[in-house]
């Protein structure tokens, strides 16, 4: 999956298109990483949930499931629901591109674990090209948590949000990158993919 930095970059470009500014823009960017908060990125999440649940990956694809369950909010252009939806779409498009690329490469016969490592290396290395800082007070984080928990698959609290802010600030999510070299992609390949994702969304 794309790193949080990449999701924030996609979100930032989409915020431009939606004319979201000021504090609302910070909130929108936070919503763009909301699907990942309950499933393994935090050291001590308030509640852990499987990726399948938070990304609506059951009986069909995640974005379609999420849209069908939240159609009214998405059609009303509610920023939180839009951002969550955009995250799921971005994940799908990155995965589709990766799977297509793997099928035509020397790596196609590698194990599932090896392919997952390869994907994370390239996607997370690419995320180092972007730098975002989210800044919310404890009171603002409490309000965000209350709002976020309106989405069925989300269960977060203030401390979860404060840890998210710290992870992004320290760029901890990129600790998994091995040696600073792309394996399957180039930076230009991934620049083009991000452009394609933003355009398609």
What do you see in this structure?
By secondary structure, the chain is mostly helical. The chain contains 10 helices and no strands. It has helices at 4-18, 22-31, 51-54, 62-69, 71-75, 79-103, 112-127, 138-148, 158-170, 187-200. Helix 1 (4-18) crosses helix 2 and helix 8 (138-148) packs across helix 9. The longest helix has 25 residues, at 79-103. The chain is globular, with a radius of gyration of 16 Å.
Write the layout of secondary structure elements.
Layout: H1 4-18, H2 22-31, H3 51-54, H4 62-69, H5 71-75, H6 79-103, H7 112-127, H8 138-148, H9 158-170, H10 187-200
Helix pairs in contact: 1-2, 2-6, 4-6, 8-9
Task: Describe, in short, the structure shown.
The chain is mainly α and about 200 residues long. The protein is about 60% helix and about 0% strand.
Distance between the termini: 17 Å
Please tally the β strands and state the result. Answer: 0
Mean pLDDT: 92
What's the SSE pattern?
HHHHHHHHHH
- Biggest sheet, in brief? none
The radius of gyration over CA amounts to: 16 Å
Helix content: 55-70%
**Shape, per Cα inertia axes:** globular
Instruction: Give the structural class.
Output: mainly alpha
Total helical segments: 10
Low-confidence stretches: none
Beta-strand percent range: under 5%
């Amino acid at each position: 999956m794309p790193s949080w930095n990449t999701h924030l970059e996609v979100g930032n470009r989409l915020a431009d298109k939606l004319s979201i500014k000021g504090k609302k823009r910070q909130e929108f960017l936070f919503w763009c990483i909301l699907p990942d908060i309950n499933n393994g990125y935090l050291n001590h999440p308030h509640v852990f949930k499987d990726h399948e649940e938070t990304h609506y990956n059951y009986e069909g694809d995640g974005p379609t499931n999420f849209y069908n369950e939240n159609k009214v909010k998405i059609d009303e252009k509610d920023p939180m629901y839009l951002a969550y939806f955009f995250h799921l779409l971005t994940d799908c498009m990155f995965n589709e591109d990766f799977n297509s690329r793997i099928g035509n490469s020397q790596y196609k016969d590698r194990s599932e674990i090896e392919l997952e490592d390869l994907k994370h290396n390239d996607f997370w290395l690419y995320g180092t090209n972007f730098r975002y800082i989210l800044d919310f007070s404890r009171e603002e984080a409490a309000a965000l948590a209350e709002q976020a928990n309106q989405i069925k698959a989300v269960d977060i609290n203030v401390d979860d949000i404060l840890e998210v802010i710290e992870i992004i600030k320290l760029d901890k999510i990129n600790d998994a990158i091995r040696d600073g070299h792309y394996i399957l992609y180039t930076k230009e390949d991934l620049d083009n993919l991000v452009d394609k994702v933003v355009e398609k969304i």
